[in-house]
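U., I forgot to send this yesterday:
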Amino acid sequence: MTTKSTGTVAGLLLAAGGGRRLGGRPKALLQHHGRPLVEHAVRILRAGGCDPVHVVLGAAAGDVRERAVLEGCQVTENPDWEDGMGSSLRAGLEALADTDADAALVLLVDQPGIGAAAVARVLAAGASPASLAAAAYGGERGHPVLFGRDHWAGIAASASGDRGARAYLKERAGVLELVECGDIAEAYDIDTEADLEHLE
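Result:
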């Protein structure tokens, strides 16, 4: 049995969305258990084993900084957040380039059904500069996704619009490790008014 390499893994939370289908309410500030959703996601990353945690903000970034407790997080503001998730992923990876992280575990702020157990399970796949792993739900790739440092430049080059790293991962399906998490997490998004029922 080979031992999985476990290096420093930075949590990378993409929380820049403007909530266009939610009447323009920034997703980071949606309330969950009485606090902004961005705080919930930061706690999930930390509890799952990510340290440090980087947060990419965009829509209403000033309001998020004022209303959410992001102590101990590195915060990056993406001025191009309206271009889609790809720009936030690029901004986050660029911010991590100057750190000693071996890998980045990417979580989306609008998926509160994904908890610390799923984060920890994906991390357990191994964290090294060569790592490439993703949570799967019924065999379908989802979040969180683990990117080793060796992949960051390629991901940043291919990330555009709302596709994020989708094209990069599709091209590397043969080496991407899928980690089934359907038994411990739910990968729904908070995109529309109807989805708000998932928040408490």
